[in-house]
Amino acid sequence: MSAPLIGITLDGEQPGGWSRYPWYALRANYAEALAASGALPVALPHFSELATALLDKLSGLVVTGGAFDVDPALYGAVERHASVTLKQRRTEAELALVRAALAQKKPVLGICGGHQLLAVALGGTLLQHIPDAVPGALAHEQPNPRHETSHDVAVTPGSLLYRIVGRDTLAVNSAHHQAVHHPGRATVDAVAADGVVEGIELADAHFVLGVQWHPEFLITAADRALFGAFVAACA
Prior knowledge:
By secondary structure, this protein is an alpha/beta fold. The protein has seven helices and 13 strands.
């Protein structure tokens, strides 16, 4: 069986820091986790007009996280919370890629911000700032390093996520200030103890799954199983 070619969305940065010109960025462990699971990872630049052509060549899509937010206007919100920061071109490109993948029935794995964007692509909405929206919320922007877990999530028995990880409770890392509110056409398959949505999936799809944590750090056996199942679905 040949290794599936899987696209990973890139972050985009304005001039400054690494380069005096606009530049792309991707944490290495996204690609490393895919390669370790038998995939050929390839990075995807921000060209929404090329989304369909790119998906024609790919076996699956990973939508990554980042320190920015989906434009609230895209899910019908009238007001924007003061904490919200945007990367319009990245969001436009990722939405186009997700829609192309869904149209072509290709597997999709959304991670953290990618999980939130997947929900929006499926008609869902987001909580714009968890501390203001969820009384007594957990520390979803964990103070400890991202390669450590910080809280548990409850996994829905019978869900695709449950079939992959084989557990009804997972320890996860956490690096987000927003969360899925309504999942649209998707189904919630994992929640934190404070009620924050931690996972969604599309029931009538082969593999369309979003997780709010960062499994690419491969902290637990469940993280490794998740990447393994995704790559197998792309093969």
